[in-house]
Specification:
The chain is α/β, with parallel strands linked by helices. Helix content is 30%, strand content 21%. The chain has one domain: Purple Acid Phosphatase, chain A, domain 2 (4-Layer Sandwich), CATH 3.60.21.
Length: 206
Amino acid sequence: MIYKRKKNDLDESTIAIGDIHSNYNALRVVLEKCQNYSEHKLIFLGDYFDYGNDLAKVIDVFMHLKTPSIFLLGNHEYEFFNFYEKYGTDRNSRDKILNHFGITNQHFQWLKDNLILSYENKTGFFSHAGLDDSKDIDDQSVTDLIYSGYRGNLDHVTLKQVVQGHLVMKKLTRIGNHIFTDTGSSLNGYLSCYMFPEDIVLTSKD
C-alpha cells in the first residue's frame, strides 16, 4: 500500500489532535472545544486503533466532520493494514478481522481512502512520530514517520514546528520546535490538542 503525503504553502491556523486510541468520549469533548475555532484546520495525528472500545464511533465522527481535516497514519493503523493484507486472504477472513476490531467494510474503505503519511504547510510539519533527526525532511521513510523515537529539538532538520503524537507524555510537551501531543488517551490519560498560531493547548480533561 502506498501512503500519500500532502504539502502546501499556506500559512494555516491548525489544531493538531493527539492519539485517540478509540476513546470516543475524549474525542467528543475536544471536538466540542474545537467548535470555538471553526477557522482552524483539524489535523489528527494517527493511532485511532486499539486500547479503547469505540473505534467504529470514532471513525463515524471522522466520516461526518464538516471542518476541513487531515487524517494521518499511525503505527497502529499501519500494523492493522499489514495484518489485513497478510491474513485477509478471502472474504470470510477479512470479515473476521473487521469484526474483531468492531468496524465495517465501509469504515475500512474510509481509512484506506483518507489516511496519509504526513502533512506540511508553511509553518508546520505533522506526522505521527515526528522525524528521524539524522535525515533531511524530504528523505524520511514510512517507518521514520510512524515509529521515530526522537525526543529532542529538530531545528537542525527544519525550522518549521514539528508536531507529532506516538510518544506518551504526562502533558503536551515542547522541546524547541518539536511538539509532542500524545498524553495517553485510553491509557489512564487524556486527549490533548495543540492550537497554532495561538500556542494554546486544549484537552479532554478541563
